[in-house]
Amino acid sequence: MNFRFPVFLDLSGKKCLVTGEGYEVAAKVQALVDAAASVIYVNPQAEPAIAALAAAGLIHWEEREFMAADLTGCFLAISDHEDNSEVFRLAEEQRILCNSVDDPEHCRFSFGSIHRRGELTIAISTNGWAPAVAVRLKEKFQRDIGPEYSDLLQLLKEARPRITARIGDFAARRDLWYRIVDSDLLKMLQRGEFAGASELIQRMIDEAADASAEH
Predict the structure, then answer these.
(1) pLDDT digits (tens, 9 = 90+) for 5-48
(2) d(CA 166, CA 159)
(3) pLDDT (mean) for 114-134
(4) Cα–Cα distances in Å, from 177 out to 116, 163, 182?
(5) How high is the mean pLDDT of the chain?
(6) Contact 12/36 with Cβ under 8 angstroms?
C-alpha cells in the first residue's frame, strides 16, 4: 500500500458509483451526497438509509447487479463486493479512481478517519496499517478541537474580502492573518462571545490598514 498523497476533492456534480453492500456502504453513499456528487448506487437491495436517499431523489439506485457500463463517465467508484477485482480492473482501464472497502489490493485511494468542524476538515491516515490509531487520533481531535473552530472559520471567511480589499501588500496581509489566528479569538468564541470576536477582527483589520497606509 502506498496511500501517501493527501488530497481534498471537489466532487460537485461528478458522477460517482457505489456498488455492493456492507456495513460501511451507507456512510460512503451519504458522504458522497454531502459532497454534492451525483451518486449512482448499483445493488439488488439497499439498506434503509440508502433507500431513503433514493426515495428523496438524492441518489439514483439501480436495483440490479453491477455491469461494466455502470462505470461510464464516472469520476470515482466505491466497491464492496466479496470480489472487487473486476470493478477495480475496469476502473483502472478507464482511469477512474476506485476504492474497494477493506480490500486495499483493489484500491487507488483510501478514506482517512475524518473530523469536521464546519469548514474545518481533518483527515487522518495510517497508510492502511493501523486504522485504530487513526480512530484514537480522531477522538482526540474531537475533544480538543471544538465548535469554536467552526465559528472562527466562519468569521475569517467573512473577513477575507475585507482584508484583501484594504491591505494590498502581501507581507502585511500575511502578518495580519497570523496576528488574528494567534489572538484571543478562540477563547472568546469558547465563551460564546461571537459579536466581540467579530469586533476584534475588525479592529485588527483597521489597525493593519492604517499601518499599511502610513508606509
Answers:
(1) 999 999 999 999 999 999 999 999 999 999 999 999 999 999 99
(2) 11
(3) 92
(4) 22, 9, 9
(5) 96
(6) yes
